[in-house]
Design brief:
Length: 131
């Protein structure tokens, strides 16, 4: 899934996310379901921008919501020139076999404009449960 932020066209960050259930790191009998997600961020605007912080909203099938805020991603604050991309993999533990995530990255463009790059909702699900 690809999303674009709502900033002016010179400030365009595309975000793609793919998630996968990681059986080896999960313990279903203990209500522990681990999901890895791979994020690809690409600067499709005309000015460079740096990812300063992240905000995630994670919801499990019981309606339990976790919010995660922090500087950068995986210990980095990537600086992306126009056309440049960055990717990383991270993970989340849920108490249910199904959930969802969405959020945003706070970006600071080289022209001094701060803007949010939206991360549209994506599903976290144990493959066997999908129909």
């Amino acid at each position: 899934m690809t999303t674009m932020n709502k900033a002016p066209s010179n400030h365009q960050i595309a975000v793609q996310v793919e998630s996968v259930y990681v059986e080896e790191q999960s313990e279903p009998d203990a209500n522990r379901y681990f999901f890895a997600y791979r994020v690809v961020i690409r600067n499709e605007g005309t000015v460079a921008a740096q990812l300063k912080s992240r905000h995630w909203v994670i919801t499990d099938a019981n309606g339990r919501v976790q919010e995660v805020r922090g500087d950068g991603v995986v210990g980095e604050q990537p600086y992306l020139e126009p056309g440049q991309g960055f990717h990383y993999t991270s993970g989340v533990m849920l108490e249910t076999p199904v959930g969802s995530m969405y959020g945003s990255y706070r970006m600071l463009a080289s022209d001094g404009v701060a803007f949010d790059a939206e991360i549209r909702p994506f599903r976290l699900a144990v493959r066997e449960l999908l129909h």
